Amino acid sequence: MALNWRDVLILDLNAKLIPDPNAGHNLLDRLRNVRVAVEGGFLHIDPRPTGHRDQGGEHDIFVVPASAVMSLVYRVPAPAEPFVGEVRSF
C-alpha cells in the first residue's frame, strides 16, 4: 500500500525519538521540513531534505506511534483564483 505523504514545516514529538541526521548519536523531538504519512495509529517520518527525496537508493523512514505527536505545522496551498475576464462581441 502506498503512503499518502505530506510535507510538514515543523513536527514536535513528545520525546526525543528521531536520530539527528547531522549527528546520529543525538535524538530529536523537533523536526523541520520533513515529510510524514499516517497509517493506522502510526506516523511515518521521512527526514530527508526536500531536494534529496527523489534520489534513489536506500534511506531510513522512522515510524512512531501517532500519540507521540505533540503538534505539526503544514501549509495548504491557496486555491487558484477563478479567471474573470471580459467577453466582447463584435
Question: Taking strands numbered 1, 2, ... along the chain, how are they ordered across the largest sheet?
Answer: 6-5-4-1-7
Q: Write down the Rg.
A: 19 Å
How does the major sheet shape up? 5 strands, antiparallel
Which percent band covers the strand fraction? over 45%
Structural class: mainly beta
Number of helices: 0
Mean pLDDT over the full residue set: 85
Helical residues, percent: under 10%
Uncertain segments are none
Structure summary, number of beta strands? 7
> N-to-C SSE series?
EEEEEEE
Through-space gap between termini: 56 Å
Shape: elongated
Short characterization:
The chain has 90 residues and is mainly β.
Keywords:
five-stranded antiparallel beta sheet, 90 residues, two-stranded antiparallel sheet, elongated, mainly beta
What does this molecule look like?
With 90 residues, the chain is mainly beta. It is built from no helices and seven strands. The strands form two sheets. A five-stranded antiparallel beta sheet has the order 6-5-4-1-7, with no helix packed on it. The mean pLDDT is 85.
